[in-house]
Amino acid sequence: MKENSINNVKDALLSKKFLITLVIFFAWIALFDSSSILDRIRLKRELNKLVSEKEFYIKKIKEDSISLIELKTNNDNLEKFAREKYLMKKNNEDIFIIKKEKKDN
Predict the structure, then answer these.
(1) Whether 13 contacts 19, CB under 8 Å
(2) Residues 77 and 71: beta-carbon distance below 8 Å
(3) Which residues 6+ apart lie within 8 Å of 37 measured at CB?
(4) What are the φ and ψ backbone dihedral angles of 97, each rounded to 5 degrees?
(5) Per residue in 40-72, pLDDT tens?
(6) In angstroms, rounded to a whole number, what is the distance separating the alpha carbons of residues 28 and 42?
(7) pTM of the prediction?
(8) How far, in Å, CA of 69 to CA of 72, rounded?
(9) Domain count, the chain
(10) DSSP per residue over 19-34, as a string?
(11) Do 27 and 58 fall within a single domain?
């Protein structure tokens, strides 16, 4: 009885060897190949992250270019920039730094 069931399983596997080969091939490609689906998903996520960083830096460069032009053309803006960014002051002035606290909900 056991031999019949084993022979039936062997016959079924041999008759579907093309299908089994395809399944093994696609599993290998999907999981273990150098350009597997998992690698492609990881690379796509990384690409999206890099594209968003690129957009951020392009925006930042534009803002800084505008600030640089303003600083080069107007001394009042230069003084304002120095006071706000580097906390520079005149000899007879005091500086008070006010930091906002984040409220925990």
Answers:
(1) no
(2) yes
(3) 29, 30, 31
(4) -105, 125
(5) 889 999 999 999 999 999 999 999 999 888 888
(6) 18
(7) 0.53
(8) 5
(9) 2
(10) HHHHHHHHHHHHHTST
(11) no
